[in-house]
Amino acid sequence: MSEHVKALWPVLTREHDSADARSSLIPLPNSYVVPGGRFREVYYWDSYFTMLGLVQSGRTDLVKSMLDNFAHLINTVGHIPNGNRTYYLTRSQPPYFAAMVGLYARATDTARALVYLDAMEKEHAFWMDGADTLAPGHAYRRVVRLSDSVVLNRYWDDSDEPRPESFRPDVEIGQTVPESLRARFYRNARATAESGWDFSSRWMRNPKDLRTLETIDLIPVDLNSLLYNSERAIAAFASFRHRRDGGQDDAVARRFEQQADARGRAILAMYDPKEGFFFDRRWRTGELVTDRPSLAAAEPLYFGIASGDQGKHVAARLERDFLKPGGFVTTNFMSGQQWDGPNGWPPLEWLAIEGVRRYGRADLADKAAGRWLALLDRTYRATGRMMEKYDVVTTTRKAGGGEYPTQDGFGWTNGVALALLKGLIPPLR
Predict the structure, then answer these.
(1) Model confidence over 362-384: pLDDT tens digits?
(2) Fewest CB within 10 A of the end CB: N or C in the chain?
(3) Which of 108, 127, 146 is the last residue of a domain?
(4) What does the buried/exposed string (b/e) look like for 201-237 if buried means 16 or more CB atoms within 10 Å of the residue's CB?
């Protein structure tokens, strides 16, 4: 399987694009890796998990090309869109750019990654647009200022119309929503697409009814963990540049450290000690959404935000409630949506496995990784393919649910597989 994955990199790599006025493609100046299947353009958060495998394959040159492309998008359109298509310009995806830069820095050196600091700051400004003038208890675009004046983030989309890439299903559902609420439904559907978890019971007041999406009313624990990591990364790179070059970067580092500290305290408050788990929060009321637990709770562990006690309890609950024969299940709701049970997804497997490992549960990490890799290998031997997602409960059944059939290819599956294999067997040759 690992040899097959390494052989797929050239198949999934696209050379730099040429501008074409007849195409929706946003041209990128450097090579990049696409997920595969129906996904023929670069996708933002997919790329971090793809890069994990590229690093293991010695392809830091391709990682750099993709980082250059993302920096180009930040500098030209103001943010990294969901994908490099014009119809994605109104939204982004989970902001992994700083994590990608950190991955590249560890694979090469800090000085080579420093060139992305300015782009990291610009992307952070996109996510924080409007924060300076926002009154407590209000939200604007992607920022929310809580009643205690702490600023956190939510998912959003600047349009409240049906998604062009899923126009028919959006319109069909929209027609069943009262006209006065239709634009709000479309906005929530788009914001959920920005989350990457489109769709999941995590975002739905009624896990069986997509019309009850409340994504824009929620403060997601994983999104804010990512932005915490971005703030820490910007502070660290600014401090490095200050030590090397002097200038104003020391003040930049202090400002971002303070922002990360405030956000970190707010994330710690998204932990429910009775449940032993992290949850999303409703920003209007402040209540934690404790009735819809999901693998998003692993992200504060992955980025080292959780306290030692919190990490221990989250790991125990992941083992008890989420570990299945094929790995970690996304949620335990069988809603028919693809980001719910019985499906397991490569990015969430990686975050949960490495998250519990960070908090002293190498035994659980290795058990989950072994089950996941065994499922991938069995599927590969039976089909010759790497899939976008897997049924981790039954393991002999193909994953399903959602708006389209399970795709093969598949960028982030390949990346996570190689990264996990490195931890369990001698290094790949």
Answers:
(1) 999 999 999 999 999 999 999 99
(2) C
(3) 127
(4) bbbbeebeebbebbbbbbbbbbbbbbbbbbbbbbbbb
